[in-house]
Amino acid sequence: MRRILLLVSFAATTHAFAVEALSPSEMATVTGGTIEPDLAQIDVLTNAIEQAQEGQLSNGESLNALFALGSLLSPLSQFLNYQREVVGVDYGDRQPQALDGGVSLALPVYVERITYWNMQPAVPSAQGDMGTVHIEGLRFSDDARVVVRER
Questions:
Q1: How far does Cα 108 stand from its chain's mean position?
Q2: Rounded CA gap, 133 and 114, in Å?
């Protein structure tokens, strides 16, 4: 397995809504587990680097790579099940750029909304629904980029 060094720097402004806590009986059905690296997300990043090197990485694929990076840095998907919806992504004239052994992923100028629908613990016995989270009005600075390099 390849190791990937991740360098992240960006600025964002947003607001989010609270989620509902599970009841004591719902929490009683939740059991512990282990955190395993999500190799599929590493593959998404590796493919993004390869596509960038070939000059064929689109902004949509760049956005998928950003979510893959977020999943690796904060493995929410290993603890929670949810459906994600992304609405109103505007890249302006920003484009991903190939780097020697990596890719510089441009962050969008603006994201209208990211929604995590029907969040619940990621265990087979989970019965409770914690609700939905809306993150709205994300704006990134003009030079906001995420650099991903293979090592």
A1: 13
A2: 8
Q: Considering the entire predicted model, what is its pTM?
A: 0.64
* Residue 97, beta-bridge partner list: 104
Nearest to 137 by CA among 19, 16, 40, 34: 16
- CA 126 to chain centroid, in Å, comes to 23
Give me the torsion for CA of 86, 92, 98, 99, rounded to 10°.
Answer: -100
Dihedral angle computed from the Cα positions of residues 146, 87, 11 and 42, in that order, rounded to the nearest 10 degrees: -30
| 15-21 contact pairs (CB < 8 A, 24+) | 15/135, 15/136, 15/137, 16/133, 16/134, 16/135, 16/136, 17/132, 17/133, 17/134, 19/119, 19/130, 19/131, 19/132, 19/133, 20/129, 20/130, 20/131, 21/130
Give 70's contacts (C-beta < 8 A, 6+ positions apart): none
Which pair of tokens denotes residue 108? 């969008």
Q: For residues 122-128, give the mean pLDDT.
A: 73
For residue 11, name the pLDDT band (cuts at 50, 70, 90).
very low
pLDDT reported for residue 35 = 60
Which pLDDT band, with edges at 50, 70 and 90, does 70 fall under? confident
